[in-house]
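Can't paste images in this forum, so I'm doing it all in text. The chain is below; anyone willing to post the predicted structure tokens underneath?
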Amino acid sequence: MTVTADQTHVGFGRRLRKEDARFLRGEGHYVDDFALPGMLHGAVLRSPYAHARVVSIDTSAAEAHPKVRAVITGALLETLNLAWMPSLSHDVVAVLATDKVRFQGQEVAFVVADDRYAARDALELIDVEYEPLPPVIDARRALDPDAAVIRDDIEGKADNHIFDWEVGDQAATDAAFASAEVVVEQDILYPRVHPAPLETCGAIADMDKVTGKLTIYCNTQAPHAHRTLYAIVAGLPEHKIRIISPDIGGGFGNKVGIYPGYVLAVVGSILTGRPVKWMEDRAENLMSTSFARDYHMHAEIAATREGKILALKVNVLADHGAFNNTAQPTKFPAGFFHIFTGSYDYPVAHCTVKGVYTNKAPGGVAYACSFRITEAAYVVERIVDCLAFELEMDPAELRMKNLLRAEQFPYMSPTGWEYDSGDYPRTLQMAMDIAGYDELRREQAEKRERGELMGIGLSFFTEGAGAGPRKHMDILGLGMADGAELRVHPTGKAVVRISVQSQGQGHETTFAQIVSEITGIPSDDIDVVHGDTDNTPFGLGTYGSRSTPVSGAAVAVAAKRVMDKAKIIAAAMMEVSPDDIEVDKGTFSITGDPTMSKTIQEVALAAHGSMELPEGVEGHLDAACVYDPPNLTYPYGAYICVVDVDAGTGVVQVRRFIAVDDCGTRINPMIVEGQIHGGLADGIGMALMEVIAFDEGGNCLGGSFMDYQLPTAMECPSWELGETVTPSPHHPIGAKGVGESATVGSPAAVVNAVMDALKPYGVRHADMPLTPAQVWRTIQGRPFRTDLAITD
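Text version of the structure:
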């Protein structure tokens, strides 16, 4: 991959990231790097039980510790009306346990001390008496009549039911199934996994008693949403709260919500009058912060004998843990799962989703996807492979026969999604050409004759990116439109302020390139400001692959408004009508006379100077935009995975992975490719290695990276990438967003490849207990760990 180091280049294209200069030198500035004068440190005492009454808490010994400044309990928070806080899904979450604990690792007490070590030591001095209760760990048993009621804090609550949600035409779908020649059904589990960012969650709260200003340094993906929620929870005026989100070491959805540790740091600062820092360790992050997936899905697909898909139905049991603390748009409690119809052309579909409480950590975040679209893509791509298995048809042939055609766009799905643009067959064919698909199948046949296990798996996905249309989407009543502000200085340099926050996506590079493409100002001369609520416009943050489709669009519109104004000023400078001006990469010239021209730098100086401006034109060059997208954008792609399975151990090696993505206009291909690389690694990890499992007592079995395995370069092949380009009509520059697409599309390709490898053994596409290796042990009659099977 060739990358130019010329950062003065104007516009879109392959550029080195502006951020990398500080990151590669170890000069990034993260929350844990901040050390404020007089700062204290907090630590959380967590429950060893998944479900238990809190009988008593004795903090006297901890309070007597010479370095301890405060010990906070649920009883104290109750006196401040802060024991419970609202979740992002219209539930409430315990900041500290008052009546009982509801998952292992739940927060029970908070110690504030002079240093981190003293705070941790003092946790051992707190004596908590628990009365253990039977835990509810298996979501399939959560609604049994004899299941313990987890949320008995909710008045009148007599079961563990959260919500029921459905979409589609049930009657028409049932009719299609009744007349279908072929019906295939399958239970499909997407087990609980964790985003596991490199940097764990943390915050520093600094309450200034003189000014009444609360400043919170926090590695949040949504600074403005946090500020509003803190105002609601703490009762402080919103303009008296400042959230500073500095460099962030990955988020992947894990850093969207507000965790009790953040609120406890605020309370600690209020009580002590000094800044309080809280940083969780890795075990706390894996055990108690927001998880992803945990969807138990039953899928049925109807088709003709020739392989024409007629209908699809899916029933989901969604495990939301002890509190409904997912970050979903209000109208969509199951996120965007109704895109489960996928990329195929069939008339009817129906889906139901039932949410339940269990004694596990709460969450259900959009881990590298747009609000449950990863689960939706997984279920449709697995059931399509099940259909291919039943019909004895090549999975690529079946997909090609049913994929949407270019002439069908814009396309309205059976569940009401309007896909904007695409050429799906061309994308799949490109992936097959890169892979040498026919030759792979011949190689597979030869290996099978020798008893070797080789699998070829496919997946095709459509993702809905850019959550934001206000008519459809909000979170806790907050609209998901994003703001942007652009100001061009007299010397022609610029600063753009955005409402989204980067966690490694390269916003400082990408957003500067958007401004550069439209204004002609070199990207090196454009500063991108983000992550500070006092210095950026309001917006709901970075998650769900929404930054470029929504905030990037806001930047593009603001830049175009600046150029509209600049064109009028340039015309006045050359004493012609604005209609006679042509604009090209920041140069304003007279139509038919290119020798007469002005640069954006010259116009900027004039806009701030003494020249008489045209009537109605104010001085300076700046503009703002609040962008409310008309629709989502729909990136898509085709993936092919090749695996070898060791016939003795069941160990899987991913030998090749071909990914062809279409994200519309590519602002910086290098950044796009980097995002795809990360997403593909995510897919391999979730398909083969990653799972948060629990034993029957509710003990988390994935509390360290010794137990929760992440993929490394050793498990990943050299990615083989391709691209097609169908710009989105819903974005000012045609971008669709690609940040999470690879994570959406890749897990199914890996799993389908493994199941294809085991096909000679007559293995149906049964739900894997946890990993392909355990499937293999099951085939051989060798048991796998029963303590892990509880999540199956």
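The chain is about 25% helix and 25% strand. The first strand starts at residue 40 and ends at 46.
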